[in-house]
Design goal:
Helix content is 73%, strand content 0%. The chain has 183 residues and is mainly alpha-helical. It is globular, with a radius of gyration of 17 Å.
């Protein structure tokens, strides 16, 4: 997928470039590191910024993690309500599958509740103005998290394309009379 700057034509300022550098470093370390979450010291050393600079941009590693997860789950939410293509949903499921060992922490066990609440908030944002948006967001988030948790833990076996199709279909069924129209 293309970088948002390519699409928007935005030229990053020094502040946004620094924030983007911290964010990119965190994401890379999350995918490469053996630790569940990189420490601030590791992030600032790899990003080449001061610790105080890190805290100028983020409240801590958890805030950075939530922002990173919001980017992924925001795209999932858009796919589920029909604002992005099913092909995008397949790509997202492939990404989750490739990183399933990392994903287990946020999709199963104690981290799943926090992730589900975040997905529900992102879905509510996508469904703003729809009747029963909160109820639909909660139902869709619960359904998606149950399936993804089972999938990354090996309790459910399905290729990414099939899971993507089923999740989108389930979300559309929950939405019933108020599906979002693609933009």
């Amino acid at each position: 997928m293309n970088d948002w700057r390519e699409k928007s034509g935005a030229i990053p300022t020094s502040r946004t470039a620094t924030r983007a550098q911290i964010f990119a470093t965190f994401n890379r370390l999350m995918l490469e590191s053996q630790n569940s979450r990189p420490k601030v010291a590791e992030i600032v050393a790899e990003a080449g910024v001061a610790r105080s600079t890190f805290y100028d941009h983020f409240d801590g590693v958890e805030a950075l993690f939530d922002e990173s997860l919001s980017m992924l789950l925001g795209q999932v939410a858009q796919c589920l309500v029909g604002r992005r293509s099913r092909g995008d949903m397949v790509w997202l499921m492939e990404h989750i599958h490739e990183n399933r060992e990392r994903g287990r922490e946020m999709l199963t066990g104690p981290g799943a509740e926090r992730t589900e609440a975040l997905l529900a908030r992102l879905l509510m944002r996508e469904l703003e103005g729809h009747e029963e948006a909160r109820l639909h967001a909660i139902l869709i988030a619960g359904t998606v998290m149950a399936a993804l948790g089972a999938w990354v833990s090996g309790k459910l076996s399905a290729p990414p394309q099939m899971l993507a199709e089923r999740l989108v279909s389930a979300a559309q069924a929950i939405l019933g009379t108020c599906p979002a129209s693609p933009q």
